[in-house]
Amino acid sequence: MEAVKNALRHPLRLLVLVLSLVIGVVASFLILTILRTAELLGQPTIPPGVLRISFALEAPSSLTPAQFLEENGLQGEWVTLGQLFREDVRRGAAIGAYGFESVETMKRFLPTLRLKQGGWPKQYQLLVPQQACRLLSCRVGQTIKVLYPGTEQPVRYTVSGIVDSPLATTLLAVPAAPRGGLDWRLWAFARSQSSEELEDQVRAYLQSRGLKAADVQVLDRIGMQRSWRQLSFGFTVILGPTALVALISATLLVLFNFAVNRLERAKEVAIKRALGASRSHIALESLAEAMAIFLLAVPPSLAVTWALLDRLGGGEAQRLFYPEVGIALQVFAGIGALVLLSALGPVLALASTQPSSQLKEE
Amino acid sequence: MMLEVIDLSRRYRSGSQWVSVLQNVQLRLREGELLVVAGRSGSGKTTLLHLLAGIDRPDEGKLHLGELVLSRNSPEVSLLRWRRAVGFMHQTPVLIPTLTAWENALLPFRYGGQNPDLAWVKLLFKRLGISGLENRRPRQLSGGQATRVALVRALARRNTLFLADEPTGRLDEAGATAVWGLLLELNRQEGISGVVVTHDPLILKQAHRVLTVQEGRLVEAVVSGRGDL
Is B50 on the interface with A (CB under 8 A)? Predict the structure, then answer.
């Protein structure tokens, strides 16, 4: 508490310091999030090909993913249909759809998942809808093999839970899944077809059912990775120097702040030393103050980061940004250590204050 | 014997030369004795007090306070023990601005590892006429009130040796009387020994001995009228 009071002695100085820390934290956070997203997109947990699980579907709409596959003769061969969602999807989270976002029919079946058995999935785990599970005779904890085209060996997924969902389809959990609940999307990876051909196919199919697709996105994996690499590179180029400048400024400001403290508080420290305070008492008090300054920067940093990520990920087509606790911990641990290291030199000098020299005649 | 100073010397560098401030100072302070150190400005009174308080190290000589010994080569831990064993009041009331008067008064306990005697501290506030100001910050105190808080802080640990540098220098007559009255009472009733640097004639009259620093040496100047030791 006293550390906070000490930090608040010069509000303007503190504000500038906290501001530079906030910019540094936010920029670092964004860079790491974008790099992480790009990295996850290259992982094999993103369905790279055809999903060969076949089971009957029970959808409330005339347009279901399975029907799409079946009616286009694509099932088990050229198109992967997967649902991606973040690891920490919450009970009762609403499903938001995109991909065919302009299709009204799609929006109508945005159900809420209710966990009937088991738990929410982690990486390499599946949530299976009740209806599908009945047909597959699956149970929680059971391993299901999923075959992808072009691969000899199936990928094994464990059934983490069984959900009550009108969308009777298989749900794959991957860590790069969209934030804000469960999305379902159409990832179409064509081997023998070009993206354009597949897109035409999708459009034709939707038209034949009297539906309009304003924006059908068909992504091939390589193209998707390339665009993400470009995006993450672009963000890094913009945000990298920002983070660097902000963090260098913050370091210098911390140094300046504690160097000035050394001059301003020499007499106070001297009297504390005269009362029996050891060097470590003084050093710990000052380092606590440095930590308090840093902790004051944490809530606004988190607020700004979350707001920016929400903004970045807010578009229907870019719902891959989401704040990761691991990244937050890395950023805060790193920048916290930087603040402490910056303060260390002046703090040690302050702790070495000789009371006799400071308490001489005024 | 409360405090014994043997062959104490202290010198400072001034430009390229060494200036000797104190030379072979000898001092024996008996238990319950109240000693005043006077002398012209710059004669070394404050230096002597700082050495007695353990906030400066002598170049030569030794100091004994009970079982504690202090010399040029004493380790830091001995210095800290010494500082915690004496009550020291600086000539200006250096209070920590972020702490209240009460928190400032309890500051010695933070570093001393000793449980605060809150009733004692409260009594000191009352005796010095600053009851009710405990929750004020230093900026909300007058100079005289701040001096009295600093005095409470110096006396809070109930040390048997009290050192003060011009304790009444910034007080009006009423304040000075209250402060000196308390110090005298503590000296008489609790047997607290004291070394006070002052020019205040009120204090000079009531000390057991008055010494002056002349050319780096302590000289017995006046023997006071107090003969209660």
Answer: yes
Tokens of B43: 């004669």
Domain boundary among A172, A187, A221: A221
Q: pLDDT of B32-86, one tens digit each?
A: 899 999 888 888 888 999 999 999 999 999 999 988 999 999 998 899 999 999 9
C-alpha to C-alpha distances, A242 to A215, B24, B137, B167, nearest whole angstrom = 34, 64, 41, 55
Distance CA A200, CA A196 (A): 6
Same domain, A63 and A195: yes
Contact B10/A at CB under 8 A: no
Domain span holding position A260: 2-41+228-361
Write out residues 72-131 of B within 8 Å (CB-CB) of A: 76, 80, 83-84, 88, 90-92, 94, 96-99, 107-108, 110-112
Q: Is residue A89 domain-shared with residue A201, that is, in the same domain?
A: yes
Tell me which residue of A84, A99, A97 sits closest to A175, measured CA to CA: A84
Judge whether residue A47 has pLDDT over 70.
no
Predicted confidence (pLDDT) per residue in A110-169, tens digit: 344 567 888 766 656 666 767 666 655 678 888 766 544 334 455 566 777 787 654 434
Provide the pLDDT confidence category of residue B138 given band limits of 50, 70 and 90: very high
Contact yes or no for B217/B9 (Cβ under 8 A): no
Binary contact (A278, B111; C-beta < 8 A): yes
Question: Do A23 and A57 sit in the same domain of this protein?
Answer: no
Q: Please check the confidence at residue A17 and state whether its pLDDT lies above 50.
A: yes
Contacts of A114 (CB under 8 A, 6+ apart): A91, A92, A163, A164, A165
Among A residues 269-328, those touching chain B with beta carbons less than 8 Å apart: 270-279, 281
Judge if A65 and A192 occupy the same domain.
yes
Give the number of C-alpha atoms closer than 13 A to the C-alpha of residue B53, restricted to the C-beta side: 30
Q: Return the closest-CA partner of residue A286 out of A247, A249, A259.
A: A259
pLDDT at position A203 is: 63
| In a shared domain, residues A155 and A11 | no
For residues A236 and A31, give the distance between their C-alpha atoms in angstroms, rounded to a whole number: 6
Residues A207 and A62 in one domain: yes
Domain ends where: A221, A238, A255? A221
Q: What is the total count of domains within chain A?
A: 2
Single pTM value for the model: 0.66
Clarify whether residues A179 and A309 are in a common domain: no
Q: Name the residue among A359, A278, A270 with its Cα closest to residue B84.
A: A278
* A148 and A261 housed in the same domain: no
Residue B152 pLDDT = 94
Q: B10 with B52: CB under 8 angstroms?
A: no
